[in-house]
Amino acid sequence: MSTATDPNPATVPGGIGAAVQRKDGPLKVTGRALYASDVAAGNPAYAYFHTSAIALGKVVSIDERDARSQPGVLDILTWKNAAGEFNALGILSQGGIASTSMMPLQSPEIRHEGEIIAVVLAESYEAARDASNRLIVTYEERSPTATFGDEGLVAKDATEGTPWFVHPAVGDAEAAFAAASVKIDQRYATPIQHHNPIELFTTTASWEGDKLVVHEPSQFVVGMHLGIAAQLQLDPAKVRLVSPYVGGAFGAKGSVTPRTALVAMAAKRLGRPVKLVATRSQGFNLATYRAETRHRIRLGATAEGRLTSLTHEGEELTSRPDSFMLGGTEGTARLYAIPNVATTVTVQHADRDTPGYMRAPPEGPYMFALESAMDELAIELEMDPVELRRINDTPIELIEGRPYSSRSLKQCFEMASAAFGWSDRDPRPMSMMEGDWQIGWGCASAYYTAKIAASFARVTLMPTGALVEVAGHEIGTGAYTIYAQVAAQSLGLRVEQVEVQMGDSRLPPAPIAAGANNAASISNAVANVCASVRDRLAAAAVADGASRLSGYDPTSLTLAGGALRGPDGASETLEEALPRVGGALEILGGFEPREGAPGALAALRRGQVGLAGGFGDRETVKASFGAEFVEVRVHRRTREVRVPRIVGAFAAGTIVNPMTARSQLMGGMIWGISSALHEATEIDHRYARYTNNNLAEYLIPVNADVPQVEVLFVPEVDTKVNALGIKGVGEIGGVGTAAAICNAIYHATGVRIRDLPVRIEQLLA
Ligand code: MOS
Questions:
Q1: What is the 3-state secondary structure (H, E, C) of 310-379?
Q2: Measured from the CA of 361, which atom of ligand 1 is nearest?
Q3: pTM of the predicted protein model
């Protein structure tokens, strides 16, 4: 794996742009980083969920006698003894904080497969599991609706359940399509996928008097802490959520799932801590998933390849009660210079658990459709697919006519295609062969909205270093490291001198770690507070007649190399400067996005998600861009598909740490390969049940599936996106990858795959 030139080399060692190794790396590789379920929690009881074997109907009876008579069994919660205990919470996509509106144990009704119908509590995990297996449940079953194509779906326009959503449209797409010289009209589909973070869905709840402490992996400790308090009707000051490390989340740990309140209630009833570690299989129903999608795309172009019309009709699946939807047409409508665009998003309600956000939520499936169609159009035009994207590039989105704050899609294609060697490609399908392997090359665009949110941070400067405190999240991204780099740069310290504390609702509020906003949001907050620290220290120095910096213009002083420095070389060490402000300087401050989010810090205190930026701002729209190129090899006889190499070039403004950013992008690209070739949750249409709910049958890529991944950075300076120019890289890596692979498979074989994941049988046809 090669390393590209760093896009914005650090101006100080360990500062912004430096490839600093993860601060939490040694703790993690030596097993000393404690994840939520590693916490000892005194003498806990163990919870085991008994989940529904049917998807629709009700529980007629539960015979608990055998289970209760087993040694070590403490109690069993069912709807009979637990109904009516909780306040309802709205779901995340509707401005609430819950993953689902379907709170279990409130009635005998069953609304989806795998719904929790009993919580068994015992002295050990094994005893709880054994007792759960001894429950005899009688159901009254009705025939459920599973997914697309099944009877009983209820279709709603996305705006019905999600009033803030507007279908992007401009011009007259129908007329322009009718008049177009070259046209594509195709349908695409993506499957159900589950996040499957390595760390399972766990909750440990302990009560100290009337105070509740919850250890649970979280992407949003502030929102979830307030949500849990609201659900349990508790004063938020009496609830604490702790989550210093998260073993993968990908969207599955950003909302309040029903499990937390159940475990908290169980702990209260037993008068002792309760620990839950849900099984891998149960996880498929406990914490959302990426819903299946369908798309019809119509593209019209001139004979020269200028796009004249796009119609994108998206269809998504959700649960019966919840209007969850992604609406990825917001991006596909705006990606290229298309004067006539029409879009719709239809949400289909079925008897399923409520879906949610999963890494690059709308862009993943929606860009598979658009970028596949773009390749099909290029073939129809007999045009190089890179050229097609180049001539339809645009500095402004044409729906409302707002400029992109910066847009380097073209540069991404140039860098990635050069590194890949695209110019050697023979465009004819089936033109490259090596032994029994057909070789194909394909590419696709990637974009991801650059979102940002308000954040607080507290910084304490001491003679020996600094402490940064913020209720942020380490979900594996390198967060502890990059905020230390920002503080080190701002305070003139070595990065080893900066300690970062995160993952606790008692820390200064930070936004949800989702939508790739945190690097921008929290870095800007940390930088702002560090600037206040410098200001305070400088003001005290210049006002002190005994200081070597006495009488200087305070704005001319900088913190560098562990000292406060004047422009002419006069300086004071921190040991000299800090006693004037009490020996250490602690400042709590924050950051609010410039546009689109007035009162955002106050809203954050109330637990609101409040993501600004992206397509939501008035003056400019903001996004990261990328281009991905892949080689595939398809075996002539077995039709096995391999991806020997993939190259991605990305422009995402300031890269705080090229090492951790590269890992993010690489992980995303591997996930993209996975979405093309491996991942799908299969559903039994008769029973609305996930059939491969385990990691043996839910396929994910292993090292042998991913031989060579090359990540390149396009340097990009964006002064409009935020003060530090950060756009974020958490999600874009996997966008477009699946399309690039299917485009390459077409080039290799002449077979077009429009339904993910790619299956051998599709290539046998
Ligand atoms: Mo990500 S799906 O926004 O956690």
A1: EEEEEEEEECCCCCCCCCCHHHHCCCCCCCCEEEEEEEEECCCCCCCCCCCCCHHHHHHHHHHHHHHHHH
A2: 2
A3: 0.97
